[in-house]
Design a protein that fits this description.
This is Amino acid permease. With 451 residues, the chain is mostly helical. Helices cover 74% and strands 0% of the residues. It has helices spanning 7-18, 21-25, 27-34, 38-62, 68-76, 79-109, 117-133, 136-166, 182-194, 213-241, 245-249, 254-259, 265-289, 291-299, 318-334, 338-361, 363-366, 368-372, 380-404, 406-426, 437-450.
Length: 451
Amino acid sequence: MNRKIGLIGAISTLVGTMVGAAVFVLLGPLVDQTGPSLALAFLLGAIPAFFGSAYYIQLGSMFPSSGGSYIYASRLLSPTFGVLAGLCMVFAGIGAIGMLALGFVNYLGFYFSSLPVLTTALLTVFVFLLINFFGIRFSSLLQVGMVIWMFIALVIYIFVGLFGQLNGDFAAVDNGPFMRGGITGLFMAAVLSFYSYAGYGIITEIGGEIKNPQKNTPRAIVISLILVTLIYMGVSYVSTTIIPIDEFIGFSASIPMTAKLFLPNWVVNFIAIGGLLAIFTTLNAILLVIPQELYVMGKEGVFSHQFTKQHGRFQSPYISLVVIGFITMFLLITGLSETTFATMTIVGLLLGGVLMGFSALKIFKKTPELYKNSAVKIPKPLLILLSIFGIISSLSFALLAILDVPIVGAMVLGIAVIAIVYCKVKDINNNKFLFDEMIDDFQNEVMEDYK
């Protein structure tokens, strides 16, 4: 597949994935736990993401391929673990699509109270399936435009709120103790806020579509994490100083409703549209990225070759796209809640992250030449330490999420058992595509890219 996404497109995909509906709609529950220390909670929540991003950066620089989760785990652990890692990403993607479709309906409900929930959610999924059918270049350009709008909306909110207080246009509200819920409340909010960063490694799924991926993939991850952290902290500070917290907690659309207090109506409307685009950018990014897993596994003969079919003109993997879209639609029709879909996303991404951490620990034994010639070389002791920390933190957060919504744990266990039995029956560990010698071939291909 031709590489069609530059650094700006890669950053837009990541920022659009991480800055979703939560920052526009769901700040209230976090504020209830933290009070004015919400910005600190988002900073603390970003720490595991920055540590965990280390092995994504290293792996993405060494293996600039689409379907990154499957590729990393299959080459560095085993083909079976590769399938499990790939299915974790697909599971997370399906959860994200369902969650965002329902989140879009709920956000619109602030303006239009009589919308049919299921019909609107299904239509939303269908529209974005259609957008991504027209190919990666089209959906990437659309992603850039939507992220720019959303970013400008949030920057206006932050800067007018900050400078308005500094210039004395309005006084900051005294919202009581800095840590409303004490250390415990701050810690729990930090754990929840980590969910807002959970998609930081998703760009590695389309490494094969990125121009100069050995350099642009790590740059995109670092720049995006910094931008997103600053956005969350800025929004949190303004939101907790502009209005009494007890009033803010009750807002159904946090940022637009707060913006009404200090911004003209046309700017409030601009920000409200930014909230819709925040949902759209995440939904578009997921549908841009996740089908690549099925495409790559189909290409290597693990799953049906039908998943590799691409539209002749737009080069979109339309079979993979349609399968993911229609599974999501089916789950929406069954009545799964927004919370269940959200937990699917978090658990899938975090368990995939656990496998990526173990994959990173195998780099020095299995692919020393790739590491030696990589555009990014995180020192071995540091990478091992960060990978272990990433594994522990990702697994811990995943277990907390499963305890909160046990049905997701049952779904993950069922998929894992079916996948392991499938791999055993198909004997994919001896698949001609997946011999250990494939690593040598892959190294040669990547070395050609470096040259």
